[in-house]
Each structure stands twice: as C-alpha cells, then as structure tokens.
Request: fold
Amino acid sequence: MAQLLGPDGRPITRASRPRPQAVTTTGIASPWTETVAGGITPYRLASILRAAADGDGRAYALLAEEMEERDPHYASVLGTRKRAVSGLDLQVEAHSDKAQDLAIADAVRDMLTELDTEAVIEDLSDGFGKGYSVARIEWQWGKVARPVAIEHVPAHLVLWDRTDGKTPLIPTEANPMGERLEPFGWIFHAPRLKTGLPLRGGLARLVAAAWMCKAYGLRDWLAWAEVYGMPLRVGRYGASATEDDIATLVSAVANVGSDAAAVIPESMRIEFIEAARGSATDVFERLATYLDKQVSKAVLGQTMSTDDGASLAQARVHDEVRTDIQISDAKQIARTLRRDLVAPFVAFNFGAGAAVPMVALPVPEPEDTKALVDAIAKLVPLGFRVEQSIIRDKLGIPDPAADARPEDLLSPMPAAPVVAANARAANAAADVDDLEADLGEIEREGLADWEAQMTPVIDPIRDLAARVDSFEAFEAGLADLIGKMDTDALTQSLARAMWLARARGDVKD
Reply:
C-alpha cells in the first residue's frame, strides 16, 4: 500500500491515524439527561442563556432540543429549513481538466455515493437551531482510506475552550473536561447565522423568549378553557331543604359534570349558566399567532407560506427570501464538507499536495417559463435565433424520438387568414406558367382587331387637326369631339377581356 499522507503533509502511520475518540457516556457527558424546559420561568431562561454566553452550553443545548419536541410550529419551520438543504443534490466539480484532478473528483463522488450524505447534511443542519453541530468520522484503512460511518454527537455533549469560546472539546473517559477534536476525524459545522460565538448564534437562542411566552399563553388558555369553557352548574334548593337534601343536590351537581346525568328531588333544580362570550379567548389566540409569526420570520425569513397562505404572487415574493437563506445555508455546509471530509480523503489517498475538488449544493433557481415562452414567441419571428435544446432543457421537455412520426409531433398552426394567404401564394407560385399563358391569350384576343376598335375614336381627332391652323384652335375644339367619338367597339373589347381574366382567376382559386 502506498504511503498515506495526512492533510498536514506528514506521513500517516498506524499510531498517527485518526482514531475514533470515544465520547464518554457517563458523568457529565451522559446522553440520558433531565428536562430543562419543564416549568421554565423567565429567570430560569435568563440563567440558561447567560450560562451559554459564558461558555457553558449544556443546559442551552438541552433546551434547544426540547423546544423542537414541545412546540409543533417551531419543529415544523426548523425542519423545513433543514430539509431545504438536505434535499439538495450534492455535486463534485474537478479542480481542473487535468487527468489527475478528474480522477480525484471521480473518487470523491464514489466515496460520497457510498455514504448517506442526506443524513449527514441533516445532522449538520442541526447547527441551525443550536449554533453548531459535530459529527465523528470512522475511517476504514486499506488500499483506499475511506469513511465508512459518520456519527452525529448530541450537542449537549460538546464542551468549549474557555480561552477563545470557538474551539469545541469532546469529553472522554480520560479527560472529562474535554479534549480537542482529533485531526481529520471530525466534522464541525458552525453556521454563520450571526457574527460571534457559536453558542450565541443558534436560532434557538433567538426564539427562546417567544417560545416561553407562547408556552405561558397556552397554559393560561387551557386554564381559562377549563374554568369558563363549560357552563357553570348552579343547584337551587328551597328554604325547607334539610342537610341531606343539600348534600344530595351537591352530589347531583358534581355528577352532572362527570356523568352528564343526575337524579334530584322534584323540589330542587339545576341551572346551567354559560360564561359571557367576550374577547378573552381572542387574546390567547392572537398572542399564539403573533409569536408563531415571529418564529417563522426568525427561522425562515418569512411568514407567508407557513401562516397566512395568501396569494400566489405574495408567496413568490417571500419564496425569494427563503431562497436567499437556502443558498447561504447550502454554501456553508458544502464548504464544511469540503474542509472536514473531502480534503482529508483526498490527502489520504492522493497526497497532501493534491488539489481538492469543489463541493456544492446548488439551489435550483425558479424559472418563469411562461415569460420565457412569450419572449421566444415574439423574438423568433423577428430573426432571433436560439437552439431548441436550450429551450427544451429550461422547459424540461425531452427531445423527440428519432423514429417519431410527423403526425405525432406538435407543429405550428397559423391563423385562418394566414393559412389562406399561404395557400394562395403556394398556388400562385405553382401555376405561374399557366397564368402567364392565360394572360397572354387574353391579350392576343383583345389586340386582334385593335385598329377597327380605335378608328372610330381617333378619326374625329384627325379631322379636327386637318381643319385648324393653330394649337390654340385645336385645344379649343377638343371639348366638342367627345360626342362624335364612337367607343362601342373598344368598350366591348375591354369588357370581354376583363370578364375572361376574372373568370379564369376564380377558377384558379
């Protein structure tokens, strides 16, 4: 087996290989924990957040976990944000077109394919709520060094270096106070949701106060519903009622509430008095709705798609905001995977100096296909040229089969006037020789006796020219010649020619 080099360039020996650090399951790092969200008070919440700001994030991590378990709305919107990234396709791009870089990219793709990358990304997305996420890599050593498992570490087990507040520590049996993560054996993701320490950057810290207020509001709402949600039962007894009668009435009133039935003497009666319907219930509901909207804004950057369900146009505007957040989350997780997983894999198998391929979680941009089709329909007739393959890719339409029949393919259908005009143009082009022959025949027939037709028209003009001796006299005598001209033969010849031309034209149409 070739000598393996770590990402730091030093040889990887049996002793120096990344070893799985066994996270202790006893003492302060036990995975079995007590609740911190039960009976939360403003003072208790403030102390938890203050301790996290001072570097002790155990109680805060447990609170963030329980917030997801106790509030359906927070669990829903946080889950939506997580799956918006974990559902993306992970892509690997070679550093260059060199054979070595292409081979490295192929090896990385094979390695990622064997892992459950969707689950890994989902675990790293746990950092959205808590501010950080840690996962342990289990390497398999052989001809090829490859990760065979990636195990997520519960956030409350992670400790922090007291000097910088940014370096995670893992408690072990040998050192319960925490050890630094073994090089090349861990994935550490701290999403940059807020500038500062990871313990102060999680969404759980941002929405914790709203979550607590909603919990108080729901508790008060249930208490109000228990007291005022059911009608008040009032038993009435007469002045002559004995102690036994009163005890019977009290028992009957109590049984009406639990058994919905009671037997009382005829002289007694039970009345049901409903509470006045006011705005008390609206206060609790409005408070819960308002707080849910604030949580939606904090986690998703919008409220439209989760709460209001308004018009499609409004939802599209808010979806753009969510897309911005999704793109940022995807880029950050891709950088973490490249740094903590792909880079060690490349160094172990191709050497410390090998180029690390790019890793990306591209977010598909929504395409307004209607606007695209409308633009193409207007531009192509003006001479705009575009490849069919590009439009097919954008519309998601595959190329037609090579053996597809013409009648099975869609084809343009021009409007009726256009069809008629095109048909006439085609007929005219096809029958141009026949038309020229017809016009020539009509012309020859009309000119066959042109002299006989024109003589009765021209003779009066010739007689006038012979009688006068000046241009002025000739011009003055023209007005009197109209009545002397015989145009019958000429008119009949022209009418016949026009009739023949129209008749043959109609036959051609």
The longest strand covers residues 133-140.
